[in-house]
Amino acid sequence: MSNKSPVELEQWRALEAHQQSVASTSLRELFANDANRFEKFQLNAAGIFLDFSKNHITQETHQKLIALAEASGVQAKFKAMFSGEIVNTTEKRPVLHTALRYQGSDPILVEGKDVMPGVREVLDRMRVFTQQVRDGSWTGFTGKPITDVVNIGIGGSDLGPLMAVEALAPFAHELLTIHFVSNVDGSHLVSTLKKVNPETTLFVVASKTFTTQETLTNAHSARDWFLQSAATDADVAKHFAALSTNADAVSTFGIDTNNMFGFWDWVGGRYSLWSAIGLPLALSIGMDRFEEFLSGAYEMDRHALEAPLAENMPVTLALLTVWYNNFWGAPSHLIAPYDQYLHRFPAYLQQLTMESNGKSVHHDGTVVNMATGPVVWGEPGTNGQHAYFQLVHQGTHLIPTDFIMAMQSLNPLGIHHELLMANCFAQSEALMMGKNADELHAEMKQSGASEDEIGELTGHRTFQGNRPSNTLLVQQLTPKALGSLIALYEQKVFVEAAIWDINAFDQWGVELGKALAKSIHGEIQEGLTVKSHDASTNGLINRTLKLNNTLA
Ligand code: G6Q
Question: pTM for the whole thing?
């Protein structure tokens, strides 16, 4: 592996030159020129089928992209991560969320100690606890079984479990409702507490550090609410559990450490769904299915680690992102799940990808001289078609898109799934094929439009097309399939970072705002006219304090 900036690699330069020649051929032409294009650009891994034929690539492009991955040392970097080397260099930590779903029997060492017995011990304790809550033998302070679980966490301690609980709703326990409170905005907690009864509610305080302002504020307010309901301090143990790496802070808060499920500093927040942070999901779907979920991710891990680069799905997806981001100037990436259960998947991926790869320096601290992580966004289809898809079809930005769909519905109902499928396939076709002036002319003529009308509308109603997409299909959105899908994107993000030579596992960018919020909070509590900031910030704070009549 060379220490050169990625842009100085000859493989990078070769791609720059190559882009010019590929750009002159449209996707329509690429398909017209090659009857086997669909067969050539598809992959199958861990229950996921990927069609990547609707991309601006030829076999030569693919080879050149693979050469870039080789030159970037992707396989060696995968091995380093999986084997527990310190790949999060700025925080001096290994990155081992893969150990949380590891199904083999080899030890995985951190500082010479096998982490697997600890991983299995927490899974065993989660099994006992989730069984008790699910079968009603875990009772609240008045002897009634638990009916509602409120997860209090934020960021990595919220987005993953929330997304997965929603995605696997068809497998959920029928008598247990899982709620998520994350925002420090009191409305989030207040509106949730209106729906639950203190006698039958279990609060799960999820925080790796157990120091996060939003989570601790919500947890304290939840405990106050609980104690106002005739419960006593001794009852807290029946109604509060903690998911954390910080046992001292959990005890200080007043949660019995018997109700604490631990994990380790080698699990990054946004990669922690597979750890105790997955407890709300395990409560919802049960531990057997939670383990199926882990096994789906493990299968994708094996594939990422073992498949040759050219047949490797996360590597392929990452290279396509690099291709559009760095060689086509595409600043964003759309995630369009055609599955209502995946409605929080884009938000989850936003954190996974943007917190991981929103970086401007290489591993050695030098400033990058190319684009890194694109903006990731999305909403499920078909709703997106009635909203943002206009810009994807006819706007001025090139927006590579991932369509994600389950081939079989978990809720078969009349023609619904046929229509969902038809819309999903139609969108990627329309994005690629577009509609040229001749086609529009023939269509409008057919429906009786005059030449004048056709002329007036031609510019508005033609579609340039030539917009690239991937389509990912799973058979059904089962726990195993969801595990594979999430791990696919985790590994994709890793490969992108490997190519850009950035650290995907730190997040220093969130620190500054946190520190400023702390000092502004102090000033708000003091209640004096604030003068210590820029004029805009002072003005905003003072105006708000005045309105609330809290200025001394
Ligand atoms: C994720 C980030 C961040 C983190 C939250 C919550 O990778 O580190 O989103 O998960 O800030 O942190 P705690 O779990 O420590 O409360």
Answer: 0.97
Mean pLDDT of 290-301: 98
pLDDT of residue 549: 80
Write out the H or E segment, with its range, that includes residue 463.
Answer: none
Distance 67 CA to ligand 1 centre (A): 35
Reported confidence tier of residue 3, pLDDT bands at 50, 70, 90 = low
Given 174, 386, 460, 511, the catalytic residue: 386
**Residue 420 structure tokens:** 């969902």
Specify the length of the chain in residues.
Answer: 552
CB atoms within 10 A of CB 16: 11
Reported as a single tens digit per residue, the pLDDT across 238-256 is 999 999 999 999 999 999 9
215 lines ligand 1 (CB under 6 A): yes
Structure tokens at 176: 């247990």
Q: How far is CA 118 from CA 108, 156, 260, 264, in A?
A: 11, 21, 14, 10
Q: How close is the Cα of 198 to the center of ligand 1, in Å?
A: 27
Query: What percentage of the chain exceeds 70 in pLDDT?
Result: 99
State the distance from the centre of ligand 1 to the C-alpha of 6, rounded, in angstroms.
30
Using most ligand atoms within 8 A of CB, pick from 204, 209, 273 the residue to mutate for ligand 1: 209
Triad 430, 432, 438: Cα angle to 5° = 70
Residue with the nearest Cα to atom 1 of ligand 1? 269
Tell me if residue 355 is catalytic.
yes
Strand order in the sheet with 42-45: 42-45, 48-51, 469-474, 401-406, 332-338, 375-377
* SS3 assignment for 82-142: HCCCCCECCCCECCCHHHHHCCCCCCCEECCEECHHHHHHHHHHHHHHHHHHHCCCCECCC
Tell how far the Cα of 154 is from the centroid of ligand 1, in angstroms: 7
Tell me: the pLDDT tens digits for 197-207?
999 999 999 99
Of the candidates 208, 263, 264, 266, the residue with the CA atom closest to the CA atom of residue 83 = 266
Q: Among 90, 68, 70, which residue's Cα sits nearest to residue 78?
A: 70
Residue with the two structure tokens 């900036």: 5
Question: What angle, rounded to 10 degrees, do the helices at 186-193 and 213-227 form?
Answer: 30
